[in-house]
Give the backbone structure.
Amino acid sequence: MWKFVFLSLVVSTTLGSHQRYDNFQVWRIRCEDETDVKWVNTAASMYEDKIDSWAANHQTNSVDLMVSPWFIDTFRNLLTSHGLQFTVIIENVHELINNERDTIRTRAVGADFDYTVYHTYDEIQDWVKTFSKENSNIVESFLLTTSYEKRPINGLKISGDLSSTGKPAIYFQGGIHSREWISPATVMYFTNKLVEDYGRDSEVTRMLDEIDWYIVPSLNADGYVYTWEYDRLWRKTRQRFKGNPCVGTDPNRNYGYKWGGEGASNNSCSLTYAGPHAFSEPEIKGSTDFLLEKAKTQPFKVFIDWHSYSQLMLAPWSWTDKELPPDAAAQDDFARETTQAIESVYGTKYVYGPGSKVLYVSSGASKDWGYVGLGATYSYTVELRDTGTYGFLLPEHQIQPSGIETYEGVKAMGRFILNEINN
């Protein structure tokens, strides 16, 4: 990952000994135009042993970066010399990590699964098995694939008729970037609500009767475990390749469509390392193989990769900002209805549009493969809460509101597909 503080070899391998981020700050850099955005992104890439890119937004021309304490003065001078201003949005990253750990350490453990707290990977996998057994009339678990470190990655199929074949399908995956804990938590929250409402809500009942839903709460198993045990801000997978000085690949640069282009790195220490070749990561190869096998007998209409943060709904293309996909207008319609439904609950605003234009160019991304490789017209990356106050360290008290509002968005997706297949 990062060459100095973030290099995995520096981190103690003793369980419970965590990478520290004392006095690391997150800065929001205000850019006047696209040229400034590209300069900041280039600087972040050049100094990626000292800077971690957290978010970028082309709509507001701002970039969020985590800056190591020994680089603060130097980087401030660099920005000043380029005429750029910034705001410190997180003063001390490690304080947020400590607050999160204190909450987890002191909470009571109940008999029922708690959808309002963060869970370990083992707890998530146990939930998949238990949830499917408790709702076996419409839910069954499946093994999606196995991680590099041999962890099973399980998911759920939800359908009003589990034995039927050929129905249109929706696929959701969470946790591809391991530090984005709100993703698996939100996915589990709205999955529970979806199943609870079957037979109670006529619209939801139709959605499950006429559409098969495949849901994988946590795809990057090894990385997620690593965030709990060693480094809360670890992003990548955990596979090391011979000759590489650093561990892990960015799984959202490892898909085979337009792999290895702009927005992906060939440096194994980079946060956006694309891997030595497309589909090098067993989590990506296994999940795409599973989906392609399913697609032989049923059409996939929707592919959603749930991320955080920034409150964005990003459509293809990711690999280029020079053109739009053939279905861009329909993708906008789908995203508009989804984001309006999310906003209707608490007023949480999402920006939608092509990923390369709203966020940045990134080759080998999941949504482009979902659109081209899987054939899902409505293929997106959804960046959940928030807009930078907590970033990747969203407190547990925001899990429930995130789940509630996102569930409205999920139902809007289902309505859209019902209307499409019945008209």
User: Anything to note?
Assistant: The longest helix spans residues 399-422.
